[in-house]
UniProtKB/TrEMBL annotation:
Cellular component, GO annotation: membrane
Designated name of the protein: Sterol desaturase
Main location per the UniProt record: membrane
Compartment annotation: Membrane
Span of domain Fatty acid hydroxylase: 108-241
Keyword Membrane included in the entry's annotation: yes
Native organism: Pseudomonas fluorescens R124
Amino acid sequence: MKRRVAGLYAPVFWGGFIGFGVWVSEVSTLCLLPLFVSALLVSFVAEWSLPYEPGWNHPAGDRRRDILHALVNEALNALGLLALPGLVTLFAIDGAWPREWPLWLQLALAIFIADAGISLMHYASHRVAWLWRLHAVHHSVERLYGFNGLMKHPLHQLLEATSGLLPLLVLGIPSQVAALLAFAIAIQLLLQHSNVDIRMGPLRRIFAWAPLHRFHHMRYGRAGDVNFGLFFTLWDWLLGSGFYTPDYQIRQGDLGIGSRPDFPRDYAAQLLDPFATVTLSREPVVPPALRR
């Protein structure tokens, strides 16, 4: 029974909440907020009921920090949505967005375009030093659970959002579709960082959910430069950065930034860290099963 639930959890969670989001947004996009809270509660219950790593369910002095990151970053998303009509007026090519399409198909197009921009910015954030300093805040986590997918430096959040949204602004994305896109990204982040023992089967060739993304958070230096996609694995296969092996189970002690075991845990200190002078430690040895 547990194995069946593990196989159904991710596709049902993803399709169910995003599909229901499309339906309720026809009434009001404000309905997406309580729907996301419901998704968050389901995520927590599932992580305690069917955990991948039981130790990751217990706070490690990071709960308050993660909540602050989530509140600030979601508030920035809300401000972006409020500013969207004005930005579309400034940048959009008139008539470029297919408004006659069904809402679900417009959302699918928005997800595909945003996924390309955000995934490429993510890839660049592991290649460009100053981008990495901002992105390192997210990689400092030493346990993965759904909520810390929202843990990002606000400046890096702004850069990622811009890379995903700018092409959509030029196309003239409607506010309703943009709100649904923000909701879909939040749902995806819950799944991507989930501590549920998800069994993906052949879906791991398509979706960038937790079983793949955990390898991206490895503490072993460049071994973690894999699986950059937000929604889909397509961009990783094109970039040559896709990686998965059943021979290594990522567990407690495998996550974080190996060269910075003393990375600050406090919220305010994490905001300042990208601008501070730091001393790097020697990278930990990469386990043989993770060598590419």
